[in-house]
Amino acid sequence: MNSVKKRKSFKDFLTSDGVAQAVFLIPAYTIFTLLFFIPVLTSVYYSFTDWNGISKETNWVWFKNYAAMFTNPDIFNTIPVTIYYAVLNSVCLIFIAFFVALMLNRKSRITTPLRICFFLPMLVSGIIVGFLFKEIYSPVISDENMGTLNRLLTLVGLKGLTQNWLGNKYTVMIVVVLTGVWNQVGQTALIYLANMQSIPKELYEAATIDGAGYWKQTYHITWKLISPSLRINLILLIINSLKAYDMISLLTGGGPGTATKVINLWIVERSIGGYEVGLGCAMSMVVTIFAFVLVTVTQKLLANRGATE
Amino acid sequence: MKVSVKKIKKFLVSACMVPVMAIMVFPLYLLVINSFKTLREFFTNPLAFPKSFYLENFKYVLEKQNYFKLLGNNAIILIGSMVLLVVVAAMAGFVLGRSRAKIMKLLYSYVVLGITLPTYIMLIPQVKLIVGLGLKNTYIGMILYYVASGMPMAIFLFNGFFSSAPRDLEEAAKLDGCSLYRTFFQIFFPLSIATIATLVLIQSIGVWNDTTMPVLLLRAEKRTLMPTLQAFYGRMMGQGTRWERIYADAVLCMLPMIVLFFASNKYLIQGVSEGALKG
Lengths: 309, 279
Description:
The complex is a heterodimer. By secondary structure, chain A is mostly helical. Chain A has two domains: 1-46; 64-308, MetI-like (MetI-like fold, Orthogonal Bundle). Helix content of chain A is 71%, strand content 2%. Chain A has helices spanning 2-15, 17-46, 64-71, 75-104, 111-119, 126-137, 148-155, 172-196, 201-209, 214-222, 227-243, 246-251, 263-273, 277-308; strands at 140-142, 145-146. A two-stranded antiparallel sheet of chain A has the order 1-2. In chain A, helix 4 (75-104) crosses helix 8 (172-196) and helix 8 runs antiparallel to helix 11. The radius of gyration of chain A is 26 Å and the shape is globular. The N and C termini of chain A lie far apart (68 Å). By secondary structure, chain B is an all-alpha fold. Chain B folds into two domains: 1-25; 59-275, Orthogonal Bundle (MetI-like fold). Chain B has helices at residues 2-34, 39-44, 56-64, 67-98, 103-112, 123-132, 139-164, 167-175, 180-191, 193-209, 213-217, 225-235, 243-264, 268-275. At the A-B interface, helix 2, helix 5, helix 6, helix 7 and helix 8 of A face helix 1, helix 4, helix 5, helix 6 and helix 7 of B.
């Protein structure tokens, strides 16, 4: 009898609003704090030490890692390459994905196959993208055979354009970015598309009555009203561009020379290959702060965009 | 007359899209057709459709690569992490999105700011921590890692969905004497199906294609598909790559994700607009 009463009061306790809310929040926040937040803090701590990844003892070295990073001559190559890649990748995707979303937003017989064609590549992993496109771009794959792109160019009579796409420092970055566009355009376009479909149809009808053509409508209505998705896309693209590792490492390994050696290749080379985890963490911190500033600035700029229009 | 001009225009735009579609599909076409060729045929004629469907490559991968064992490992990790992530994040997102308490905003930013962190920065501490918890070479360790990594995006989407879900539903449930648990699990959670599908697809791609953590935490018998594919590719680098076998392996590794994509396809747009664009 007593136990039944006790259980009931415990149930009452559990169902009171405050406690129930805590029960809903605690699992998520426990996992996140333990395996996401604490590791971030640990990483900040390592960036101030000379830990090599193995040894038991570490020394607190203050800003020595950060100083080492900025006095290393490699940084004058890595930072421009990273920024070049990130800007080219983000800008291409922002605009190309917008046009793709416009096409996917039309009602026509090919909309469904078109959607599948653009969304399927986002399922392909960095590893597969890496070796698939390596084969496509390579000048030779066996003794007498050209890579696929060169073969296609020869077939359509543009033999003069054939070259070692990944081995030429002028073409390599474009080729890497195009591969990234192929891989990611679906995700970016999907976010735009969801936004476009929520724009009220009446706006377009009114504009048509006013005599505005398709491109005018696209610019003044569609492009101006997709701020929410533009914001999310920019955040994701900035972060993904600064995070890029898998695909670049497999396609080019940073080469030829150091033409595509983005900062993550450098970080992995030093912290895992060179046993300088402290330095690697310091470099990662710099990238993180840079990403954070970039995201904040773009968000501020876009907030104004929404307000003035 | 006006209508027909419009129709012609529409047709022309569609016609222009066909080559674009061809370019998008072309790499996947290469991957699939070449997995059905012998190495000889691959080298002599890599662009053409295979003369006959040569199945030895798939047989090789299924037998020598221990495909079904790896697929099982992968499925345990993927399903475990997605179920845990969806339930846990939806519960938290529900409270964050519906409660008007000031602290919720703070709690929301605490997790969602994680989206802006390049996740590789904490890889080494995460590995150390998981090993320290005694979860090395266990599925639980991998699952918890993926749940934590997916949490910022999941909370972002669920908070967006639940904060714009109709309020009268909740009031009606309260009048009927429903507890928060029943209100959530019987009314709101099933409503968020599109958000769930979108989240699961986005996160599954990341989990399925991860080649870093499984290598660091799991021994060979518990490994997943993608790292094994990478190792398979890496082993052949020096000695003449057997492209046709790699392609067959890649096709088989991608297959489950393609199935998942077609299963979640119809929810994707709804999921993004309800979750990501409302928050």
